[in-house]
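Predict the 3D structure for this chain.
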Amino acid sequence: MLYTIALILIIAWLLGMVSSYTIGGLIHILLVVAIIVVLVRLIQGRPVN
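Done. Predicted structure below.
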């Protein structure tokens, strides 16, 4: 589930980079949050499902 959300955020981030909408800043923030959540779960040793 978390990988799916991260993948959707990465795709949205890439679309924001290409299309130059003003919502790009929000997408960057969400992408960083998703990466941090994945890293924290991996460091804690929990499965990232």
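The chain has one domain: 2-44.
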